[in-house]
Design goal:
One of its GO terms (cellular component) is membrane. By secondary structure, this protein is of the alpha+beta class. The chain is built from eleven helices and seven strands. Helix 8 crosses helix 9 and helix 9 packs antiparallel against helix 11. The N terminus is likely disordered.
Length: 487
């Protein structure tokens, strides 16, 4: 069961392993075929060498026979013992050669030629034996009569003709082997080329098939991730199989379902919150108006005026929370205009400086003229976002000695970067990942919607807002906006 589970879980690894094994098998098969063909060619070369050596032996035998035929004296015509020994060596060699050649040669025509050569050898053997017997039985070695000499010469002439015939056949066989070896070499090379082409085509097809099997579902996963990233949580991945990619697709579908359920719950909560906010906002407004009427009836130095002022502040805070909630749940439509932000940013910082919210903070604004490109934004909503980020930084620095706040702007990669940097206590790592989540706050008086609404507004302008922090050193918020082409 564990082996089966391993195979189904790591199916892609099995496919890659199968491809490697197939390539190894085909390469091994090609190597064996090549070795066999080279061996066969070597054997044919050995045969040619053997035939050439046979040719030399036969030529030597022919010379010996000519020497015998040219002798005129009977005493010198006696059987040549050196010729007998030479012939015996030749006969043994040819026998061994024939056995070797029959095992080495696979061509049918070559086997027929070898058979004819062996027949000639046997005829030669019989003729030479008969000649030897003629010397022993019919002639006196000292007899120089014309008739015995004529017989001997006739037999020697017959031997001479058979030797010549054997030479002719031997040369023909050498030529035949040469031609057939060359032909077989061409055939072998053709076969090898064909086999290599077939193996190459098979490997290409198998690689394409395996690559297709792997990359096709991956491409579908990439497309699905893009759809889900674009907010289409109804998109489903239809991947069949139980390999790693199939498991990933199934997991991604489960994640999408979970996100969809979470979004539906959040949407329901927001809808409920919007309804409650509407229902609460009207009474709160009425209470605020009533408090203002009551406050007008008290003298300015009356101690109750301080209590009424605190009540007014709390009512304003509740109204701000309700406004943020409504803005997050139902974003205000953008009123986009092309503008430059340098002057706007400088005015906002001057306003915040004079408002008393940052009287004890050292502020540095670095917005050079070249960092003032055209951007297409809703200036009112952008101002809300920028002020929210700066005020959060000022609140983080409140009361800390040596507090410093820096505003910087620059253009990089056709984008305007606006950085708000403070040297406050920083944001812990476990909090920084949640800082843009709705209703998340570490402040006692915060609603947890300010940064969430800010991120939503900036992203609706095709920009982004990010945060990075080094504890006890600095925190940096970066607002990124696309630059419009200059006209």
């Amino acid at each position: 069961m564990n082996i089966i589970n391993f195979g189904s879980k790591y199916k892609i690894l099995w496919k890659l392993g199968l491809l490697v094994l197939a390539m190894f098998f085909l390469i091994t098969l090609l190597s064996l075929i090549t070795i066999y063909n080279i061996t066969l060619l070597d054997k044919n070369a050995d045969i040619l060498t053997s035939y050439n050596e046979t040719l030399k032996l036969v030529e030597s035998l022919q010379i010996k026979s000519n020497d015998l035929l040219n002798n005129e004296k009977a005493k010198e015509i006696m059987f040549d013992q050196e010729l007998v020994e030479k012939y015996k060596d030749f006969d043994n060699y040819v026998k061994q050669f024939m056995a070797q050649a029959k095992n080495a040669v696979s061509n049918r025509e070559l086997k027929k030629t070898l058979t004819r050569l062996n027949s000639s050898r046997e005829n030669f053997n019989s003729l030479l034996t008969a000649t030897y017997q003629a010397y022993d039985d019919e002639f006196d070695v000292w007899d120089t009569a014309e008739i015995p000499m004529t017989k001997l010469i006739n037999k020697r002439e017959g031997l001479h003709k058979d030797i010549e015939e054997l030479l002719i056949k031997n040369n023909a066989l050498i030529n035949s082997i040469t031609v057939n070896s060359s032909k077989e070499s061409r055939i072998i090379v053709s076969y090898m080329i064909a086999i290599v082409c077939v193996i190459f085509v098979c490997l290409m097809w198998f690689s394409y098939y395996l690559t297709r099997r792997i990359t096709f579902p991956i491409n579908r996963l990439i497309g699905a991730a893009r759809e889900i990233g674009a907010g289409n949580l109804d998109y489903k991945i239809d991947l069949k199989g139980y390999d790693e990619i199939g498991e990933l697709g199934h997991t991604l579908n489960q994640m999408t379902d979970s996100l969809k359920q979470s979004n539906e719950k959040l949407r329901s909560m927001l809808q409920l919150a919007v309804t409650v906010a509407h229902e609460v906002r009207n009474p709160i407004a009425g209470i605020g108006n009533a408090i203002q009427v009551i406050s007008a009836k008290f003298p300015k130095d009356d101690p109750y005026r301080e209590i009424i002022s605190e009540m007014t502040g709390q009512i304003n805070r509740v109204d701000e929370i309700i406004a943020n909630l409504l803005n997050y749940a139902r974003p205000v439509p953008l009123n986009l205009t092309k503008c430059r932000l340098r002057e706007t940013l400088l005015n906002i910082m001057a306003f915040l400086k004079t408002s008393g919210t940052a009287s004890d903070i050292s502020e540095k604004v670095d917005i050079p003229p070249e960092a003032d490109p055209l951007v297409n934004i809703d200036i009112k909503q952008f101002t809300q976002v920028f002020m929210n980020v700066v005020i959060n930084a000022q609140q983080a620095l409140a009361g800390a000695p040596g507090s410093a706040l820096a505003i910087r702007a620059a253009v990089e990669d056709n984008k305007l970067l606006i950085e708000v940097i403070d040297n406050g206590p920083g944001v812990p790592g476990d909090i920084i990942t949640k800082i843009f989540e709705p209703f998340f706050t570490t402040k006692h008086k915060g609603s947890g919607l300010g940064l969430a609404v800010s991120q939503q507004i900036i992203r609706s302008m095709d920009g982004d807002i990010t945060v990075s922090s080094v504890p006890n050193k600095e925190t940096k918020f970066t607002i990124t906006l696309p630059v419009c082409p200059e006209k």
